Amino acid sequence: MEHSAPHNKQMSASWDGGTPPNTVYLGEGTVVNGQQAFKRIVSELPDALVIGKQCTLDGVQFSIGAGAKIRIGDCCCVTGAILMAEMSIVIGCFVLIGWNTAIADSDFHPIAPAERIADAMACSPAGKHMVRPAVARAAVVIEDDVWIGPNCTILKGVRIGRGAWIGPGSVVTRDVAAESQVWGNPAREVERI
Amino acid sequence: MTSRSIPGDWHCGAIPENVDIMPGAHVETSYSFLLFRSRRANGLRLGTNASAYGRCMFDMGPEACFSTGDYTLLNGIWLICDNRVSIGDYCLLSWNVVIMDSYRASKDCRNRRAMLRRFADTRNPDAFSGHAASPVTIGNNVWIGFDCCVLPGTTIGDGAIIGARSVVSGQVPANSLFAGNPARFIRWIIPNEIKQENSCGE
Fold this sequence. Notes:
The complex is a heterodimer. Chain A contains 1 helix and 21 strands. Chain A is mainly beta. Chain A has a single domain, classed as Hexapeptide repeat proteins (UDP N-Acetylglucosamine Acyltransferase, domain 1), CATH 2.160.10.10. The longest helix of chain A is centred in the middle third of the chain and has 11 residues. The termini of chain B are far apart. Chain B is built from 2 helices and 20 strands. The chains are: A mainly beta, B mainly beta. At the A-B interface, loops of A face helix 1 of B.
């Protein structure tokens, strides 16, 4: 998976919300629609979000936490999805992601009950100076030519192999082999394409 | 054009000419027709007192036909239709329900790559058309919970209920409750059971 170099910033790329934030790089010919697209980018990395050439992103929302990044290759089509990175989400080229799909590289909150109380307090209006407990995170990788249907959920640490098919509504919790087809909750392999 | 506009619409658009809105039926916004490309004479029909609330999206190809019966309520559904989707009377479809009669993609990733390259070059949604489509038929008085997916070729019988977040395919018999992903039979819905439960307490 090769990603466009960040220096071709906004060359004939467009976003209907105006000029994207400085931490966002859009490749040549890429079109982003939706005012909410970059509202939730907190990452201070100079290349928090890098999108390749000729992508079409309609109604997509990026939520990128501190120190996290998202990479998308060329010629991808994403509609109405939400991508939530606390670490790293890397998407290859020619990837199609259906409407209302969610991709996350973290569970956002700790699993242990006592830690979750600490997290709830830190997240509350009274928690401004509290430190949130550490949260498990694991990078998500979606390789080239993957098709992801609408209403899917892709969870942390998952690698989806090249050319795989993720059926509509699937909840993907484990790696998906290249060119395989998975369906269901949890997603299971149905047949090789 | 102005006669096809919707009073108080937040989106700047109009209802296409080949859309029939029966008396008493309501469409909240013309945004729902952003991806409507049907060229059929009766591309879309909403029955008497039917409604399309919220961000319903009628993503329909050139040959697509979609119809609902009377009193059917669509609350922010996403329709992907290239052939035919029909819904009966008195149905309730909840938010983020996806109904598709076509996957609009080949299972062969080489074909998908060619398709995405064509779309990237032209930005014409016709690049996604031409795939197999099998009609979806939903009977009368069907209730579909939020976030469900109804897959190509599905038939849902009268009075059935589909639990939230289910993924439905194949045949769902009348008066049955289906749920899960993949959706499976849970139980029969006994007619008038709610009425009976209420009367027990009195």
